[in-house]
UniProtKB/TrEMBL annotation:
GO terms for molecular function: ATP binding; ATP hydrolysis activity. Belongs to the AAA ATPase family. BCS1 subfamily. Residues 323-351, 478-496, 510-520 have a biased composition (Basic and acidic residues). It catalyses: ATP + H2O = ADP + phosphate + H(+). CDD domains: RecA-like_BCS1. It comes from the Eukaryota. The keyword ATP-binding applies. GO terms for biological process: response to stress. This is AAA+ ATPase domain-containing protein. Its cofactor is Mg(2+). It holds the Pfam family AAA_lid_At3g28540.
Amino acid sequence: MGMGEGMMEKLGSVSAVWSALVSVVLFWPVVNNHVPAGLRQWLTTTAHKLTAYLTPYLHVTISEYGHERFRRSDFFLAVEAYLSHACARRARKLRADLGKDARTLQVTVDDHQEVTDSFRGVTLWWYPSKKPPRSNVISFYPREDESRFYSLVFHRRHRDLVLDVYLPHVLAEGRSVIVRNRQRRLFTNNASGSSSPYSRKGVWSHVPFEHPATFDTLAMEPADKDAIVDDLTAFRESKDYYAKVGKAWKRGYLLHGPPGTGKSTMIAAMANFLDYDVYDLELTAVKTNTDLRKLYIETTGKSIIVIEDIDCSVDLTGKRSKATSDDKKKKSSDEDDGDKPKLPGEPEKEEASKVTLSGLLNFIDGLWSACGGERIIIFTTNHKEKLDPALIRRGRMDVHIEMSYCRFEAFKVLAKNYLGVEQHEVFGEIRRLLEEVDMSPADVAENLMPMSKKKKRDPDACLAGLIDALNKAKVEAAAAKAKEEAEAEAKPKAKDDEEAEGETVNNKSPSEEEKANGTI
Ligand SMILES: Nc1ncnc2c1ncn2[C@@H]1O[C@H](COP(=O)(O)OP(=O)(O)OP(=O)(O)O)[C@@H](O)[C@H]1O
């Protein structure tokens, strides 16, 4: 009797819960319209708890912002990508858009669409949802208000399969979908080098990266090109190796050579080969070493960070110790300035970049530089000799690549790309001229570019134009050399004359140039 009563009681309470649930379902539109947000949230949570008590189904929640408040969770993004890709055919509401190449059609699951997935014969349900904004909090971060999450629902008997196998599978699949669909980006740092915490604008701005250069279109010696491709491939596949030897997973390249030899083109070819984003860092716009560090932290993995014309960016020629002591002096003088009251109407001082050599060295291989992994840092310069050896020593700039004038093998790549010509009777003459004349690939390419429709149809005319340009450059180079030699010959004579003069007028003070050269 007691047992029977207990059973009756339980059944009674279950049916009471059911009728409560039915009432909630019926009255939910009324609740939605008339009940304040706080109470509505409480009712939702309670309903969830009640359902959890009654059903054998389990929930896993994947939030848009995981532990990190300001960075979307990688797992959330992977789930989003996975569902759009794997479950699009089964969803009822779809979204169609143009793919990253602006040509192919991409069909994905609509934002608020529930989807059903099937894995090893098990059915799973995904529910996208949004966290309601906290009404008593005014947020400067719009994303806090828009925080989304996914709920994965499955029967409790599949708990192990879902947690140990299905979710890792979703993560891996989602990541590879992201990589496949990724529109790569070209970033540049914003003028101040730092952003306000209240601003949505980050420290970097970006546009789609669309440079078409590849290693196939890059004109350089084939053996050098192959060596670079091998090096990049080895780097990309060496995650475990870097971890084993205790090094951050990054590599530095120094590209040096005269203007127009393809340094920027090489960077684009590397980015396209690796499928990485490019961060083009304008160092003169970075005010302090701290801003430089912030910029680094805000870069993502799988990226190339570029500082072009590093010798022109900031004064990095000082020795590290000197830079540091200079910094200190500068800091103390700045502090002095800080104490000085500013006169009314006195203009604001234009803030110059205070990035130092030591700041830059820290940027490349300080502790922070190990964050995130899989990064390539590239410096370019037209004057390698001007750089501090500490900056470009192996280990920091692991690979030094000299981009040089166009020789015959490089020319053949350009002739094939620009004219579609692989063999021609004038190639022999061009080979001979390219061995004698230093012409950059940019200048060779310029000569191969058909300037008129007529020339486009006539590679012969383009090649003849190149031969003319090479002959002209050869004559000019010979004239410049002759002039240089004549000047060099004239110099000792002038010096002799001065010395002779010095014997008679011995109180003449040495010139500044002579002092600098130590010739007196
Ligand atoms: N090695 C090369 N292969 C193919 N094209 C090249 C090469 N070098 C130069 N070019 C052509 O010349 C143009 C200028 O080259 P690029 O900007 O890459 O040279 P750079 O070495 O970076 O020059 P700078 O030192 O002046 O920045 C490119 O747009 C490209 O069309």
